[in-house]
Amino acid sequence: MVYWTAKKDKASLLANNNQTAALASFVGGFASYGLAGARPYCDETICLVMYVLCLFAVHASFCSALTSALLHRVISNMDEEDVLKWAERAPIKLILKLPLYKFFLGCVAFLANVLVEGWYKLQDKEGPWRFIGLGVGAASLSTVILTVLFVMCDSICCSSGSKKSARSTNIDTARVTAWG
After folding, report:
1. pLDDT tens figures, 89-147
2. 3-state SS of 117-163?
3. CA 6 → CA 34, 83, 96, 114, 177, distances in Å?
4. Do the Cβ atoms of 9 and 83 come closer than 8 Å?
5. pLDDT tens digits, one per residue of 16-74
6. Residue 173 gets which letter from DSSP?
7. What global pTM score does this model have?
8. CB 108 within 8 Å of CB 141
9. Within 10 A of 94 (CB to CB), how many other CB atoms are there?
10. Chain centroid to CA 162: how far?
């Protein structure tokens, strides 16, 4: 079976929170460089778009990191059996997924900003450079989006399908773990 959401044991929940927090902080830190000025660095609409994408990436990434840290603290202070009961509650299931979702949104906003900023900064260059930058940026952004969509869809299909359908795709013999 493919796991999109974390297994509900204490060690797995703690590990997933650590991974998400570290990666979200990393992305948020890079995105914060786009906010270095007090406002967008030009008066064109494209500069406003880049600034807002950076702002969104920073907020989503740091929210992911902080939510992960808070959840890590709560989970660390619980006994194993209490974690299992706690993680099965409906609102907690959603809260446990929030850091990953926020991280994903922050990554998409950051990569979109890099794509738009490359397009803007290469506007005066002759030749194919602007379109090469656009192609590389679009490929990177679409790779992240398609990977997440594939894992989500695959998880839904396998978790609601029968064992027979899982065996036919050889998924039941190997665990594929996404970040959450």
Report:
1. 989 988 988 898 899 999 999 999 999 999 998 988 888 999 999 999 999 999 999 98
2. HHHHHCCCCCCCHHHHHHHHHHHHHHHHHHHHHHHHHHHHHHHHCCH
3. 32, 13, 8, 30, 8
4. yes
5. 888 888 888 888 888 888 777 656 667 788 888 988 999 999 999 999 999 999 999 99
6. T
7. 0.76
8. yes
9. 10
10. 29
